């Protein structure tokens, strides 16, 4: 065979080797570490006090219900998903008495968890967000979930950023955020985390959300909410959805990505939804029908039919009052343990007199905390103490437990003192 015949169609200059995903590379390094003291603070999944994955008790009960159903089968779902799941998922995020539901101006499509919902929503915007002077740039908080940028640019959307995290206060860069949203061209797409912002753990207050909505309404911006932590952040499903519901009350047309990975522990089952909400008005139902039809076409061309099992688990919990009540208790267990770990870490750092202020550990909410540790300190923690976290100092609070929080606090104290 000649060299020309054997040559690849994909030489290195055309298909360069991509770098390893940073988070998965961190996980690989952690698994390869043989130290008995190692601590994983990078994992984006809940762990119990024994550092083990926790199957929610309510999910185990739902599993039993599904397995014992004589009608159980593995047939295809409809293109838009399992209706007992999608209808209740919409009620969960919007509120069962939402005017958007009663006025039939919502469309819901089951997706491959939140990632698939962001992708489907982005693909829809890429195809159809073109009229009335729409600006097809998506404004992302800085920082945001690492995958947002790639998902959006993969479908041809432009991205820009707005200030979100204030490194000095380790809180919300509120004034900068408002100024950037106000300065963005009219009808821009603004991506928002309604609760438990990833990666910072910093959320706007209720008053700040109202001001953000007011500015966005003035500029005719399009909100795209990415909600991965409803109920997991505060333990209260309604509180964690309050920003979304306020925007709907204000008459916005918007998209919502919804994931059940964290709050039901269905990480590998990939259960999620994308919701479109039309603005109120005489044509709202007709607009919703057209959007629904195009979302179904896009879904058909990409995955054809969504996966069934995780949707059945979620639907079983959402439609059974007793199981739903138990789920609320499970959410309190998870969010409560994380809040306790925040308190413990802050308390131990302050007891040690660790240089700096550490109130941000308890001021932040949800799974993640932006510690304020710099890249060198993070590297030292990994090398010297076998403590793994992302380079930007983000830690998963679920990786802390009563057995390792003392060790982590003392290690942080040491590296902060050594690098001052």
Helices, strands, pairings?
Layout lengths: L2 H4 L15 H11 L6 E2 L16 H11 L15 H12 L4 H4 L3 E7 H16 L8 E6 L4 H8 L3 E6 L1 E2 L4 E2 L1 H10 L5 E4 L13 H13 L3 E6 L9 H4 L1 H8 L4 E6 L11 E7 L6 H19 L6 H11 L1 H32 L7 H4 L4 E3 L4 H11 L1 E2 L5 E3 L8 H14 L2
Parallel strand pairs: 1-12, 3-4, 3-7, 7-8, 8-9
Antiparallel strand pairs: 2-10, 5-6, 9-10, 11-13
Helix pairs in contact: 3-13, 3-14, 4-13, 6-7, 6-12, 8-9, 9-11, 13-14, 14-17, 16-17
How do you describe this structure in short?
This protein is an alpha/beta fold and 420 residues long. The chain has helices at 3-6, 22-32, 57-67, 83-94, 99-102, 113-128, 147-154, 174-183, 206-218, 237-240, 242-249, 284-302, 309-319, 321-352, 360-363, 375-385, 405-418, and strands spanning 39-40, 106-112, 137-142, 158-163, 165-166, 171-172, 189-192, 222-227, 254-259, 271-277, 368-370, 387-388, 394-396. Residues 37-411 form the Aminotransferase class I/classII large domain.
Folded structure, characterized:
Keywords: Aminotransferase, Pyridoxal phosphate, Transferase. Belongs to the class-I pyridoxal-phosphate-dependent aminotransferase family. By secondary structure, the chain is α/β, with parallel strands linked by helices. It folds into two domains: 19-56 and 325-418, Aspartate Aminotransferase, domain 1 (Alpha-Beta Complex); 76-319, Aspartate Aminotransferase, domain 2. It has helices spanning 3-6, 22-32, 57-67, 83-94, 99-102, 113-128, 147-154, 174-183, 206-218, 237-240, 242-249, 284-302, 309-319, 321-352, 360-363, 375-385, 405-418, and strands at residues 39-40, 106-112, 137-142, 158-163, 165-166, 171-172, 189-192, 222-227, 254-259, 271-277, 368-370, 387-388, 394-396. The strands form four sheets. A seven-stranded mixed beta sheet has the order 2-10-9-8-7-3-4, sandwiched between helices. The N and C termini lie far apart (62 Å). 46% of the residues are buried. The model has no long low-confidence stretch (mean pLDDT 94).
